[in-house]
Amino acid sequence: MKERVVEAKRLVGKKTVRGKTYEYEYYTLPLNLYIPKSMIEKHGTKYILQVDEDSGTITIKPTEGK
Question: pTM of the entire structure?
Answer without folding.
Answer: 0.75
